[in-house]
Amino acid sequence: HKNIMLMLENLINLVKGQSGDAIVNNPAVPNEQNEEVIAATGNSIAGSLQNILSGGGLQDLLGLFGKKEAAADPNNPVVQNVSGNVIQDLMSKFGLDQQAASGIAGNLVPNVLQKLVGKTNDPNDSSFDIQGIFNHLSGGKSEGIDIQGLLGKVTQGGLDKNGDGHVDLKDITAMFSGGGQGGSILDTVKGLFSR
Fold first, then answer.
1. Can you tell me the distance from the alpha carbon of 6 to that of 141, in angstroms, rounded to the nearest whole number?
2. What is the pLDDT of residues 116-154, one digit of tens each?
3. What is residue 81's three-state secondary structure?
4. Strands (E) located in 71-148
5. Is 131 exposed, middle or buried (0-12, 13-18, 19+ CB in 10 A)?
6. pTM confidence score
7. Which 3 state secondary structure label does DSSP give 143?
8. What does the pLDDT average to over 181-188?
9. If we measure between CA atoms, which residue out of 69, 68, 62 comes closest to residue 155?
10. For a Cys-Cys bond, which of 80, 142, 153, 187 suits 138, CB 3.0-4.6 Å?
11. Considering only CA atoms, which of 44, 10, 9 is closest in space to residue 128?
């Protein structure tokens, strides 16, 4: 569980690093609430990514981590989903109005996701790694799966090209979503990389 706490801590630090204009210098957020709003935003981002994975959004998440530009795209389904959750959380926890909450989310979410993806793909930065992130988001279900290899397959379109590729990804997605049989799916995943 130490790694899970560490990931969340690193994510909250990412939010903190990006929060100058969005939170700290924002008149809608009282200064004594800055730290709380930063922590809540980090938690909300992590929770949103977890929900996307458990809701069958594995391909969307892999697409996000596969290229940094995806995180900057406001039409990306992951970015939209995370932003929506952050807005709801800020409104319900801190009584911010829709406009203030949307302003914070619009400013922070794409920047934080971009930084997260950038750090994850940077071999010289050990604060995040793709395996650790997916282990955290899946509650440990992704241990034993080569997420980095899977990411490569998705970003190169390899999974779609081989005809039955989609079925393979569906199997893995089902595993994260709580459906499917553990053992056989792990075999399917291992099979992906031996082709």
1. 18
2. 999 998 889 888 888 888 888 888 888 888 888 888 777
3. helix
4. none
5. middle
6. 0.82
7. coil
8. 43
9. 62
10. 142
11. 10
With beta carbons less than 8 A apart as the criterion, state whether 147 and 131 touch: yes
> Cβ distance 121 to 129 under 8 Å?
no
Residue 137 and residue 68: Cα distance in Å, rounded? Answer: 19
A 10 A CB-CB count for 64 gives 25
Longest dimension (CA), the chain: 56
Please give the Cα distance from 119 to 18 (Å, whole number). Answer: 14
- In single-letter form, the type of residue at position 126 comes to S
Structure tokens at 60: 């969307």
The helix/strand count (H/E) of the chain reads as: 11, 0
* Start-to-end Cα distance in the chain: 34
Q: What amino acid is encoded at 56 in this protein?
A: G
3-state secondary structure of 93: helix
